[in-house]
Structure formats: C-alpha cells, structure tokens
Specification:
The chain is mainly alpha-helical. It contains 5 helices and 4 strands. A two-stranded antiparallel ribbon has the order 1-4. It has a two-stranded antiparallel ribbon with strand order 2-3.
C-alpha cells in the first residue's frame, strides 16, 4: 500500500493543503475534518484508467487527448504528495475527451470501475464522488 496523506482541518481557508508538510496548496476547495488520500492507491487507480483508455475504440484525437490528460493526472501523484488540482483538472479533461467522442461508460465495464474508484478516492477533494463521476457522464445516485 502507498503512503497515507493527510489534510488537516482547514475550515474557512482559501485552499487545501495536501501532502506531507503541507507542501502542495490547492485552491478552490474547502474541507472540514481530516482527509486521507492513499497516494499508492490513487496512483494505481490512475494507471488503470490510463491503460483502460488505450483499449477504448475512440477517434484518434480524442483517445490522444484522454490519454495525455490521464498521464498528466498521474504526474500529480508522488509517493510523498498529491497535487489535487493537477489530478482533478486533468481527470476533467479525460471526461471531456470521452464526451466529445460520444463514449458511453456502461455500468459493469472496467472503465466504470476505474471511474467510480477514482470518485471514491478523490471525492473528498473534488466535491464528492458524484462530481468525479459526472466528469465522465456517469450519473451516480
């Protein structure tokens, strides 16, 4: 398993400090309580998404855009910290490329599993798992 990364209570702050020694600041998110992101688990989930994108039958431009954004999302995760802004903004781009290609992610597919796993991992910094799933056109209850 990877390292546990904590975000301390930052209620009322202008951003979220993520990683060891609060070295990464992400603007636009306010969280109450502690958030733990397992960087190894997140990295594995992003790697899985990247690989799954390679197997999709998409137009070349959209596949390249989706994989490039997924690779950029991966670059936001190290063994010591998670740059939530890099990860989330690039996952949004993956979703945009898939929607541009009119790709539908069906329940029970590996893509569905990857997206819902990322939603559970990133939900606390992205506004919830539903928000992450919506980037990919998946309506969660």
């Amino acid at each position: 398993m990877g390292d546990q990364i904590s975000v301390g209570s930052i209620t009322g702050s202008q951003g979220v400090a993520i990683g060891r020694n609060a070295s990464t600041v992400v603007t636009g998110h306010n969280l109450a309580g502690d958030v733990h992101i397992d960087s190894g688990e997140l990295r594995a989930a992003l790697d899985g998404l990247y690989d799954a994108l390679a197997s999709l039958d998409l137009p070349r431009d959209e596949k390249m855009a989706a994989q490039t954004a997924a690779g950029n999302a991966i670059s936001g995760v190290s063994s010591e910290e998670v740059d939530a802004e890099t990860v989330t903004s690039n996952l949004e781009k993956v979703g945009q490329a898939l929607m541009k290609a009119d790709a539908v992610i069906e329940e029970g597919t590996s893509m569905w599993d990857h997206v819902t796993r990322l939603g559970s991992l990133l939900g606390p910094v992205a506004g919830g798992a539903k928000v992450v799933a919506a980037w990919f056109g998946i309506p969660l209850p």
